[in-house]
Design brief:
The chain is mostly helical and 121 residues long. It has one domain. It is 72% helix and 0% strand. It is built from 6 helices and no strands. Helix 4 packs antiparallel against helix 5.
C-alpha cells in the first residue's frame, strides 16, 4: 500500500510541475478550499499548487486536517511545490502524527510572517 501512495504522489507532483498556466481565479480557489465536496477541495488544492500563490498557504494548512485523504494529499503536494518542504507531513499518517506535522506547519507560517514583518521595517 505504501508504495502505491508514493507512486501516486510522485505522479501528481510531476503533473503539477509540468502543467501550464491555470485559468482558476484566486477567488475560485479560496471558495473551493472551503467547499463542501471533497473533490472541490482537492481541485482547489491542485489549482493553488499550480498558481503558486503563497497567500493561500494558511488555508492549505487547514486542509491538512481534512477528513478526506485525497484532499490532504493534494494540499501537501501543493505546499511542497510552493515551499519545497513537507515538514514531515504525510497525508496517510495516523491522526496524531498528522496533527504534530500540522502544528509544525502553523509554526512555520508564524515564523514566516514574523520574518516578512521584520524585513518590511
Amino acid at each position: 500500500m505504501a508504495w502505491r501512495a508514493v507512486l501516486c504522489e510522485c505522479l501528481i507532483l510531476a503533473a503539477m510541475a509540468t502543467a501550464g498556466c491555470s485559468d482558476a481565479t484566486e477567488q475560485s480557489i479560496l471558495c473551493g478550499l472551503e467547499g463542501e465536496c471533497p473533490s472541490e477541495r482537492s481541485a482547489a488544492c491542485l489549482q493553488a499548487g499550480l498558481r503558486g500563490d503563497e497567500s493561500v498557504l494558511p488555508l492549505l494548512v487547514d486542509r491538512l486536517e481534512d477528513p478526506a485523504a485525497d484532499v490532504r494529499f493534494f494540499a501537501i503536494a501543493a505546499m511542497k511545490r510552493m515551499t519545497g518542504q513537507t515538514l514531515g507531513y504525510h497525508y496517510y499518517d495516523k491522526p496524531e502524527e498528522r496533527l504534530a506535522a500540522v502544528q509544525r506547519w502553523r509554526q512555520w507560517l508564524q515564523r514566516k510572517a514574523v520574518s516578512a514583518k521584520e524585513a518590511g521595517n
